[in-house]
Amino acid sequence: MRDELHRAPRHRHHHHEDIVELVITRRERHHRETRDEILVAAREVLLERGAADLSLREIARRSGFSPGALYKYFDSKDDLVKALADNAMAALLREFSRASPDLPPDERALEMGLAYLEFARRNPEDVAVITQHESMVHALPPSPEHRQFEEIVTGVFQEGIASGMFTAANERDAEYMAYGAWALVQGLATFEQNQRPQLSQLLRAKQRQLMNVFINGLKSDWSDPRAPEPGSPVT
């Protein structure tokens, strides 16, 4: 009997902990759901107005909150745009994961480029969000998703340089290759979305060849050793 009396308080204590944990879980779920509702409204406003004219007051109106209430979920407008871009970037990274790591660097770069174009075709709004975020990324610390994206894209060109497949004049050339590849696929995606359907279809049929031209060009002596380093004055 004495042992049972001693055990009873511990049982009640564990029951209390379970209740507290349940309340916290519900609160966290409510916080997450509310945050997602705000992001849906913010995505609509961002795509309509762009990052420069993004209005927290309009986001609050559409999501049914006061403007001040938004700060319970996001520190600033930049933080909100970053959250939108992180979600879009995570979806893009899942698309990239379809490119087998066992492929040689040139083939993997091609498959990643094609994966980006297919992602842009199915998710033009996400690509628009990523592009809007890129225009203001200098003002924000890079997120894990952003860093992972840069590491994956730059990494395939670093591997190509290390294996002797791609030609490089200096250690920054892998970054130039990544920026060039990004500019190419983003340009192809934008062109396909904005042109009349017949012309878009013609270009779409040649996207693999166009990317191969770029990738194969990296195997030649393409880098100009006289080119200035990023950030240096142009004379």
CATH-assigned fold name of the largest domain = Tetracycline Repressor, domain 2
Gyration radius, to the nearest Å?
24 Å
| Largest sheet: number of strands, sense, barrel closure | none
- Shape category: elongated
Approximate helicity band: over 70%
Assign the structural class, choosing from mainly alpha, mainly beta, alpha/beta, alpha+beta, or little secondary structure: mainly alpha
CATH top level class name of the largest domain: Mainly Alpha
Describe, in plain words, how this protein is organized in 3D:
The chain is mainly α and 235 residues long. The chain folds into two domains: 74 residues, Arc Repressor Mutant, subunit A (Orthogonal Bundle), CATH 1.10.10; 149 residues, Tetracycline Repressor, domain 2 (Orthogonal Bundle), CATH 1.10.357.10. The protein has nine helices and no strands. It is elongated and about 60 Å long. It starts with a helix and ends in an 18-residue tail after the last helix.
